[in-house]
Amino acid sequence: MDTLFSIKDVIAILKKSIVWIVSFALGGLVIAGLTIYLLMTPMYEMNTQILVTQTSENDNAISQNAEVQANLQLVNTYRVLITSPRVLNQVEKNIDGAYSTEELTNKIKVTTEQDSQVMNITATDADPAMAAEIANKTAIAFKKVTPQVMKVDNINILSKASVTKTTSPVSPKPFLIMLIGLLGGALIGVIVAFMRHLLHNTFKEEKDLEALGVPLLGSIGKLPIHKPSVDKKKGEFNEKQTIS
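Above: the chain sequence. Below: its structure as tokens.
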């Protein structure tokens, strides 16, 4: 059979297989929902902000600008220092060994805005309270270690992480995952519909032959089937048939 489809053919195939497509779409939606609520653990992110400040109170504008530029250059160094074993070992002790230094490395992320002296310490955990504690303890440990390592005391904590009533998990994203499941299931249903059409090797209508350019020699109509009636009283077949 010809495997090229016109728009009319595509619409006809989709209409004919609408039950398959809807079934696969709903199946994908159900699988996505079960995956979210049975296999995925909600994760929370808590954020603590710290500020790299000036180390002197020089009123000279040129000196102040030079110090700001120096602090901006130090920010990249501080980002590495925050996730260094020197700081994370202290954090591990402060959270009573709930996580090792290696595990904390994967849970802590440090970000900064371009040309900004503000740094964000973000901790991720299944428990929002633990995520907040990790972020806050990391900021405190960093503030304590910096003067020992860098010989400067220019770190201030702007805001601490805290759990509120509006705190919600950042992952997984149920709506997005279920939408992907729905669309993925529908796509599989469409593929199955076209595969069934391509693998179908019988002719049910005259137009199937016409599409191949084969002349129709004749057709056999559907014959009615007469069933002998049963006389319930005598338990015998009634052979009388009505001839129309």
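The beta strands are 44-52, 108-112, 118-125, 155-159, 229-231, 236-238.
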